[in-house]
Design brief:
Layout: H1 2-15, H2 18-30, H3 42-54, H4 62-78, H5 83-106, H6 114-137, H7 140-149, H8 154-184, H9 193-209, H10 211-231, H11 234-239, H12 241-248, H13 255-278
Helix pairs in contact: 2-8, 3-6, 4-6, 4-13, 5-6, 7-8, 8-10
């Protein structure tokens, strides 16, 4: 029993390490280029996302919401989203709706409260998974070009792509700041279970203390990047129609895009038909 507890605690600490978190973030940003979702054109994908991000909020039919949730869950699997993102999704959904069911039971609720809370949970989960599919499954450049094609300001579309480009720099700087704090500090012993809890608290404190140095160092490096972009004529290129046309020429709607939309809305039509028959 003691051996099992020891292995379990060591596994949890390994999963909470900075290297694991960094790898998960970078995998989610750059490790999905070979998926079916990443190869799709962002323009029809945004239309698909607009449907599943807006329609569920105006529908209270349980069958329809369940069908939409199943579809976006499948697309999330196809996008090969990092496990850390899915974990945050699960925690986020429970923090928004799951605790309401627990509270309702504590204050006199019964089984009748399950259906309304389930409807709310399916709405939040469907919209969240649709967002994860699009923004975690698409390549940063294709995502930026898709926003530009729909008329978003150039600065906004560039900011999306630049944010992804900043991730490796941000994680590297964060790692350097944490290492500097560890060199100057004395971490508690983590050989016992109590020591592991103290070590985890120590890690959280170090992360909090590292926030301001991280922001300052990243701002310095970002300024250098902005100056380099200005020298290369970024502002002129962002508003030049010929450059914009050249940049968007890589976007092409293929048979895969049409097939993806057709299958999605055929599934929605079958779900609506099933809902009408059940109702």
């Amino acid at each position: 029993m003691e051996t099992i507890k020891k292995k379990l605690s060591e596994n949890i600490l390994d999963k909470l390490s900075m290297d694991f978190l960094r790898n998960q973030v970078l995998k989610n940003a750059y490790g999905n280029d070979d998926t079916f979702i990443a190869a799709l054109d962002p323009r029809p994908l945004f239309v698909w996302y607009a449907f599943f991000a807006l329609v569920p909020w105006f529908v209270d039919d349980l069958v329809f919401l369940l069908g939409c949730f199943i579809l976006v869950a499948v697309t999330t699997i196809m996008a090969k989203v990092a496990g850390l993102v899915l974990l945050l999704f699960g925690v986020g959904v429970f923090s928004q709706t799951g605790y309401l069911f627990v509270v309702s039971l504590l204050f006199g609720g019964n089984a009748e409260t399950v259906v309304p809370l389930l409807i709310l949970t399916l709405k939040v989960a469907t919209v969240s998974l649709a967002s994860i599919t699009v923004f975690s499954g698409l390549d940063p450049d294709r995502l930026s070009n898709g926003l530009m094609w729909y008329g978003c300001p150039e600065k906004l579309s560039f900011s999306v792509s630049y944010a992804y480009r900043m991730l490796p720099m941000l994680m590297e700087e964060f790692q350097n700041v944490l290492l500097s704090y560890r060199l100057r500090g004395n971490a508690p012993d983590s050989s016992t279970m109590t020591g592991k809890v103290r070590y985890l608290i120590y890690q959280v404190k170090v992360i909090i203390h590292a926030f301001y140095p991280l922001m300052l160092n990243t701002a310095k490096r970002s300024r250098t990047t902005v100056e380099a972009l200005e020298i290369k004529g970024y502002r002129y290129a962002a508003v030049n129609k010929e450059v914009k046309k050249m940049k968007l020429s890589t976007l092409k709607v293929t048979c895969d895009d049409l097939l993806f939309l057709a299958v999605s809305f055929l599934w929605v039509a079958l779900v609506v038909l099933g809902s009408l028959l059940i109702g």
